[in-house]
Each structure stands twice: as structure tokens, then as C-alpha cells.
Write a structure and sequence with these properties.
By secondary structure, this protein is α/β, with parallel strands linked by helices. The chain has two domains: about 270 residues, Carbon-nitrogen hydrolase (Nitrilase/N-carbamoyl-D-aminoacid amidohydrolase), CATH 3.60.110; about 250 residues, Rossmann fold (3-Layer(aba) Sandwich), CATH 3.40.50. The protein has 17 helices and 20 strands. The strands form four sheets. It has a seven-stranded mixed beta sheet. A six-stranded mixed beta sheet has the order 5-4-3-2-1-14, covered by helices on one side. It has a five-stranded parallel beta sheet with strand order 18-17-16-19-20, sandwiched between helices. The longest helix has 22 residues. The radius of gyration is 26 Å and the shape is elongated. The N and C termini lie far apart (about 65 Å). The model has no long low-confidence stretch (mean pLDDT about 90).
Amino acid sequence: MIRLALAQINSVVGNLEGNRRKILQYIHQAQDLSADLVVFPELAVCGYPPEDLLFKDHFVQDNLKTLRALSREINGITVILGFVDRDKKGNIFNAAALVQDRTVRGIYHKQELPNYGVFDEKRYFMPGRETLCFRQNGIVFGVSICEDIWRHGPLLEKQIKQKLPMIVNLSASPYDYGKLERREKRLKDRARQMQAYVCYTNLVGGQDELVFDGGSMVINPQGRVIANAKPFEEDLVVLDLPLVPPGKKSRAPRGCIDLGVKTQTLKCALTPHKERRLPPLERVYRALVLGTRDYVRKNGFKKVLIGLSGGIDSSLVAALAAEAVGCENVVGVSMPSQYTSDGTRADARILAQNLKISFKEIPIDHIFQTYLDDLSPEFAGLPFDVAEENLQARIRGNILMKFSNKFGWLVLNTGNKSEIAVGYCTLYGDLAGGFAVIKDIPKTQVFQLARFINEREKVIPDSVLARAPSAELRYNQTDQDTLPPYPELDAVLKGYVEEHLSAVQLQKICRDKEKIKDIIIKVDKSEYKRRQSPPGIKISTRAFGKDWRLPITNGYRED
């Protein structure tokens, strides 16, 4: 038997000392539960993804120093954890170290390097070539890292032939809509293929645009999940795996490293660690909360600031922020103009009261009029149009940034994916901010999330949900003056942005060819705005940012 622990931790990229302390904390917790072996996520020592920090030799060296320091403190338990390794030629590897009795007993280098979507591992790492397996308490197990278990490559083929009874996989697999189902299916398939227990440890936490949802799990050879970790929070899963009869050993392949037998007094009995599966919409909500909380805290901010328009987007962001960082750390600012309705003005205040966040109201009429008066000689005789509309948005952006500069508060942008996709946003205006919470949330899902929040506790006024969306930059304005109805728009955007469908293929979604053409042109021409927008949380399979690399200068147009 082996008592296994999966340490699902929230590492901070680059915080080597903080990560070291956290790893030791979880090692001690695992030891208190009499674990023989504890497994940490991919690159737990330095955090994932470290990106171009990996081009800094001193960063790689400091990460190695941290591993050595950790090794000296590990005794009485076997530990597998991710770090960055380097060979004598200076090549670096995404690696896993097995440490026992203050000694690194073996190092595995990741073989399958993902280089798609948000992943750029071939930019930094060399692929490994060798497999690695160990025997402890008579049980033989192999090691793999994240993508190694997703692809049916040479490593998997070799591990299948070795007939290993257990595989441990260190992972940093970011969340998106359908990732949990895809991940679980793949791991179950691998467990059945290999006829082995698959012990999967995933990272948890927010890192810039990415959210890692945890969900570490152990799957038996029949493809059944027998233990899993809490989603979207740190956790330690400990369980007993009776893989071989007492006194016997599983067959070890050539080159297998024997770790011996660790005899421990079991301090407690264990019950299976099983967590309920969250419904899809709740997963989105939890990802947004975690991503916001970690971005704020890991970057050293104490408070966040939101422009409250009384509309659905800012209401949702305010509710998410209050949950993420606490209502006492959220400031809402209403900036009404002559075009702001009494209803939205009142709703902004009611929302703030319901959420118990700080509220300020700063009318912009006088500032707006001053701009118009001072600039009137330059624009004499020209009609009021989008230039004057956008001027109001930029005044509001300046006010929010003034508070940010003065008090060090982080401005949370409130733009949604539908608006950002087609450029229905103002550069240096409502695109201003440090972090875009709902940047990857289409407008239709904004309403779904608002209703989900109200089912838990009614904080968003009914009138906000019932009112037609409007920027309120002129009288009687609604979004649908400029855009198709959001359900129709979002369906086309999903096909074009997330699935790369052509205009012809999109006609299965929308029969109006001209409407499709107009949407595509808007998306393509708005890339220059998106490049200047703040980072935001990735939720979909293809989010604007790392997933989406459309050229700004782009002469391609579909016929």
C-alpha cells in the first residue's frame, strides 16, 4: 500500500521564496496525515507560466537554488514537484524532481511541449527524451507532466509497455468552458489504456489572463474517479492505494529507481475525498472571482475601483469584485451626465447599497461642457456625433484613473466580449482600466451570470436586468441602434472568433449575409483597440489576447 497526497497549491509566478514556504507547508500537512508520497503541480517552484522570465539566466539559477534549499528540508516523505532544470549546454527543461531524504533521487524532463493557444513552451524548453520510474513500498510508478498525458506519443507508448501500476502527472491546465469534461475524459481514457491508477495534480489560482481550476483527481484502472480535489481553491487530497499485496513488489522495468520502504505509523484513517461537480455557470462565476482576487492580491493592490453606470456590465463586475476582494475594498463611482436617465442613476446607488461597497457620485456635465466650449472654434458647424459621445467616455476614464493614481486603487474595466469584439467601446474611455474582469464574457452570458448571482442573494436591481442596454451617450440611445440583437451577435461571434468559421459557414448560424459581413469587418478592424485594452480573464476556448493574434494591419477580406 502507498498513502498518496496530491497538493493542489496556488503558486505565484516568480515568488520563489513564497512558493518554497507554501510547498513546505503542504509537505508538513501531508506528513501529519502519514503520507508516503506527495505530488505538487507543474513548475510549482517558480509558478506557471513563467514566460520570458525563463530567458533570464539568474531566474533559472535562483529557481534551482530554491529546489536545492527545499531538498535539504525534505525528510521522512517522498516529494515530487515541478521546477525548471538546466543542462550543461544551457538548455532548459520543464522538469519534475523526486526528492527523498534530503536528496534529489531523480529528475524527469517533460517530453510533449504544447505550443498552441495560450501555450508557448517550445519558445523556452527543450523536450526530454527519457522516461523515469520509481519503486516505493513495493509499488512502481511513472512520472509525466501535463501535456505528456494528453498526447498519445512515445512516452505514453513506453509507459503502456512497462505496465506500470501507477502514473503521477504534474499539471498546470488552465480553465475554460469545457475543460473539466475534456480533461476528465482524457485521464479516464489513459487510465484504462494503461491499466493504471492515474494520479493527476493540477495547479489552482489566477495568473494574469489565466485561471487554473485545480480539480486534481485519482482515477482507477477501470476509468473511475475515486478521489478529487476542490475546484478553484487550494486543497490536499490524501488516499490509500493498495496496489500490491503486502510483502510483494510490482515488477520494475530496467532503470527503475528503488526508493525502499517507508514504514509509517498511520495517524488517522482516511475516507474517500470526493467533491461535487459544479454546474457550468457556477464554474464560470468561480473562475471570474478567483481570477479577479488573485490578480488584485498578487499584484499588491488593496482596493479596486469601478465606474458604476447603473447598467448590467458594471453591476456584474461590482458584484464579482465584492465577492473576490470583500465589499470593504470596492469603490463604485457614478459619473452621470445630462444623458443619464434617472433610472440608471438610481440603480447605481441601489447596487452599491446592496453590495455594501463605498459609493461616490461625480457628475460630468460641467467638465463635458467645458470641453465643448473650449473646442468649439475647432469644430464649429459640425454636428454632434460619435466624437462627442466618446468624449464623455474619456472624461469618465480620466476620473477613474485620477482616483487610481492618487490612492493606488486598481480600476476594473467593465467591457464585455461582445462589445470588445466589434469595437463598441471607446479607446482611452470605457476601455481604460488595469484589469478587465468580463473581457471574455459575451453579453448574453453577462445576463445569465447576473441572474445566477441574484439567485444566491438579490443584489442587482430587477430594473438593471429588464432595461435595454445603453451607453447613454445621447438621448434615447440603445446598443441595438448600432448592433444586432445580442443573442444573434453572440452566436456569430462565437463562430467567427472561437471556431474560426468563414462567412459561408456562419450562414448556418445567421442567414443574413450582409449582417455577417458587417460583424466580421467590425471584428477585424477593431484589433487596434483590443491590443490597447487591459488584460482580462480567459473563460472561452479562444479569448482575445494570447489565444487571438490577428494582425492589426490586415488587408484580407472574405468575398
